[in-house]
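User: Please run a holo structure prediction.
Assistant: Happy to. Please share the sequence and the ligand.
User: Here you go; the ligand is iron/sulfur cluster.
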Amino acid sequence: MNLQPGKLLGSPLYPAERRNISRRQALQSLSFGFTGLIGASSFWNFLKRIAGEEAPSDVFKGDAPNSKTIELWRKRGWLVEARHYLKLGRNVQCKVCPNNCILEPGDRSHCRNKINLDGTLFTMAYGNPCTFHIDPVEKKPLFHFLPGTYTFSIATSGCVFRCMNCQNWEISQKKPEETKDPSGEEFRLRPPLPSAITVSQMRRLTMFPEDVAAVAKALDCPSVSYTYSEPTAFYEYTCDSCKKVREIGLKNVLVTCGSIEERPFKDLAQYVDAAHIDLKGFDEETYKKLNSGKLESILKILKLYNELGIWFEVINLIVPTYTDKPEVIKKMCGWIVDNLGQDRPIHFSRFSPNHKLTYLPPTPIDILLKAREIARSSGLRYVYIGNVREVDDAETTYCPSCKKAVIQRDIFSITKFEIVNGKCRFCDTKIPGIWKV
Ligand code: SF4
C-alpha cells in the first residue's frame, strides 16, 4: 500500500496488516483514538516510554520558519507536500526513514527539511539544490558502474544522520533556509546553460526535476547522482528527479547511508540504477554513537537492494577507535558474503579528521591493509581501499579467475581497462557491474 497523506484518517488502519498487528502498531493505533483529548505525539511518546521502547528522534520544536519565509518558499515552488506520512490529528509522522519523526504544528524534522504546517507535512527541500558538480563516477566511489564517465551530482541541505565525522556537515547539518535564498530574482537553471554561476545565483537557484534531467543531458552526463548530503532527506525531490531522468534515458545513482523505510525505498528503487551505500560499522552501539543510525534497518535495506538486483557497492569508512576493530570488520565481511554475495564490491575508506572528530588521526595505512586482507580471506572478490596514495593497487580490479588486473585507476581516472563485453579480456570470466551506458 502506498501511503498517501490523509489516507489513514477516517479509514480502517492498515486493513491488510491489522490481522497481524505488531505491538508497535497496536500502540500507534491506540494513540489515534486519543487525539481529541491529548496531543498524539505526547501520548505516543508516553506509550512508548511505558512500553520501554526507544523515543522517536529529536525534532526541532517550534522551529518551522515564519509565514513570510514560507510564502517565499511556496512562490518559488520549493515547498511541496511530503509523501509517506501519517496524520495523527494535527500532528504528523514521517515514515520515510526509521527516525519516524513526529511533528506537532510548527515543528521541524530531525533531518531539518520537513515541517508541520497546520497538520500537513511539507518538505522545504524541493527544486532547490544547494550545490551541484560534475564528478567522475569513480569519485562516488562506484568502480563497477559506467567507469570513466561523469555523473551530474546534486544535493540539498539536510541529513537523516548526525555523523560525528561528516565531511559535508556544512550542508548536511544545515536547514534549507541556511543554504538558499528565496528573495530577489529567481534563477532557474535549465538549458541553454550559462558559462558561469555566481554565489548569489547559486543561493537563488531553482532546478526542478525536469531541469535536473535536461541539465545532465546538456552536460553529456549519462547519469545523475543524488549525493553529498543524503538523498533520503530530500526524498520527494530525489523521486521526481529520478523519474524525469529515466524518461530521457539517463541513469540514476544514489549515494546514501541506506537508512530508509521499506515502502518509500520500493517506490524510489524502481528508478534507481546504482547505489553507493555506506555501511558505517557493524555494531549497533557504535552506529548509534558515531552516526545516530540503526544498523539493523540498514542491513535490511542492503538485502532489499540485492533482492531487487540494483547494482550497488558498499563503502566502509574506517574511523580510528570507532570502526577499526578487526573482529568487527571480519564479522561485517562474513555478513556481506552470506547475504550479498562474494561479488559485492567493498571499499574501505580512509578517515580524515573532520567535523567533531578533528582530534583523531587519519586511519593508519596498516589498518586499511589489514581490513583488505580480512575481506579477501572472507571470500570477497572486489576489495578496494579509498583515499590513500601510498598503496599502489588500492583501486585495482583483479579478475577473480586469472588474477590479472582488469581495471587500474589513478585517483579518479582509468589508466587500464581490460574488460570486454563485461568479461575479463584474458580469461573470459564475467566481471559483475554495469559497464555500458
Ligand atoms: S526523512 Fe526526515 S522527517 Fe522523515 S523520518 Fe527521516 S529524519 Fe524524520
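The radius of gyration is 22 Å.
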